[in-house]
Amino acid sequence: MLKTFFLPYLAIRNKGAGYAVSIVKAGARIVGHSAGPVRLPLTDLSTGEESELRQLIEALGTQSLD
Fold first, then answer.
1. Cβ contacts of residue 32 below 8 Å, gap of 6+?
2. pLDDT per residue over 10-34, tens digit each?
């Protein structure tokens, strides 16, 4: 899990200032929860970065809260 999810996740998060917020909001959107855009001066992930995140999340498969 560390190599296949968290390290790539951190690599995306570390690409831009304020991406700690942006990546959580993008992840929420990817799994179907409206999070809205980040507020200025922060920026949302780029389309490519969000695609990378989507691939990471989809590789995990369905997650349970149990």
1. none
2. 999 999 999 999 999 999 999 999 8
